[in-house]
Each structure stands twice: as structure tokens, then as C-alpha cells.
Amino acid sequence: MMQVESKKLNIAGYEICPLPTGIFGLDGGAMFGTVPKVLWEKNIPADDKNRIPMEARALLLKKPGCNIVIDTGNGSDFVLKYGEKLGHKFQEMYNIDPHGPSLLKSLKNHGLKPEDVHHVILTHLHFDHAGGATSENSGSLAATFPKAQYYVQKKNLETAQKPNLREKASYFAANFEPLLSAGCLQLIDGDQKDLIPGVSVLVSNGHTVGQQIVKISDSKNTLLYCADVVPTSSHIRLAWVMGYDLNPMLLIEEKQKWLELAASEKWYLYFEHDPFCDAALISKQGSDFALTQRLQL
Ligand SMILES: [Zn+2]
User: How far apart are alpha carbons 237 and 93 in whole angstroms?
Assistant: First the structure.
């Protein structure tokens, strides 16, 4: 495997700080859709239950007076959130390591407390992205970041509130209803350039309806927080899409559009779920794409 290079990035005045929130396990077959296991297991080996290790890697954009968190990992307080029966099973089912890093521990490593966060951009409300958005506070659920403005696409909230059968097990009201009650969830309708200066959101509908990926950009550098459009570095291959994706052909189309730009304009791609590298640079290889540099930010 290609060596991982360490790199510190500062884009649009923000220090780019990965926030690992912990390793969990997802079914390897579901993560790679129609790609045969003999191919994907070379990149990420599976355990005896066919689960592969996934990171839930949020991102901190750190700037004095403007700290932004993108996605929040699986979170905790599963019994309070999902009830006795599912709550107890949840940690085991997804092999969530209770002793590893967490969103708040990672934030603390950068000298920040929950009240220091000004903005939280949720790419979508699937539990492995929005699970840490709410947490227990004096016995009930509240926004984890009490002073932050949260953002999600309006269409994604509508989908989460009335999930289809395939996504029902991924959208849980406990991860977003407390934000709505507190009045801190702003609904975005479509792409938005400079939602916060230097930070834009781009809508993708292939994985779920109303996912927003995040582009951090200045005149020199661009980093794309790929979320579930390109969950790991293995997924830069166009046909490598997840079994979870609602509309795989649309996802491939969207992914191709952004990867063309990433290759030609040398964007950094940030991988939320890759257990082995934070980010990468890519290039065009024939009609597909290949990694040119794996990065640890
Ligand atoms: Zn998702």
C-alpha cells in the first residue's frame, strides 16, 4: 500500500483538524455493493462476521471566533436514544469501541470544549454522521454543542422524518428532533456557496436524498469533505459504490463530476470512513481515477 504522508493544511484561514470519533464495523459487502470480496478485502480485510473497520471521522475547521464541526460520528447514549432493546444491541451490532477516541475527546485535543463550537454542518442525518449531534443532558437529550448553529438540507430532514424502508434503520429522530425543538437547526435548500465564509455545501442525492458534501476553499487550496459520496479511499474507483446507496447510478454520475474537478484542480479529498488515511490527492487514470498521495492531516 502507498505510504501515507503527513501534511498540515490551512485553508481559508481555518486550521484543518481531523476529529476521529471512533472505529465501528459495517458489513463489508454492503460497503462495496457489487464489487466482489476477493477485490475489496485486499484493501480492507473483514472480521469473522464480515464486518470491516470504519472510522467515523468528523472534521474541525478551527479559526479564532469561528470553529466549525462537520459531522459528528455515531455518538453515545444509545439506550436513551434508541430505547432499551435496540440501545443495548446497537454498540455490539456495529462493533462500536467505547474506549477509543470520541468526538468530545478529539475536540479537547485541539483545546476546545462543546461550547466553543459555533457551527455544525451535518452532511446528512444517518446515525453514523449525526449520532453525536445530540447527547444526554440531565436525563434528556439536547444539542451536544449548546451554542452552535446546526445545518442540514431541508430535503434530508424530510427524508429522515419519513424514512423509506431501506433507510429506516439509519435515521433516528433522537439524533435531530432535539435540535429542532431547541430551534438551532437551520434548513438549507440546495447548494450554498459560502454558507460560512470559505465553506460551501454541495447537494448529492445518490446515497440518500439531500446529502450535502462540504467544500472548503481559498485561492490556493480546496478540500472536499466527501462524506458518503466517497466514504473511503477505495471508493474513488467510479464503479465502487456502496450497497447502501439509494440510487447508485446517480451517485456514480455525481462522483464522476466532483472527481474530475478534484483530479484537474488538485483538490484534497477527505474520507470520513477510511480507517487507514484521512485524505488523498487523486489523478485521472484512463476513464477512472487513482490515488496519487495518501495523507494524514
Ligand atoms: Zn450515509
Answer: 28
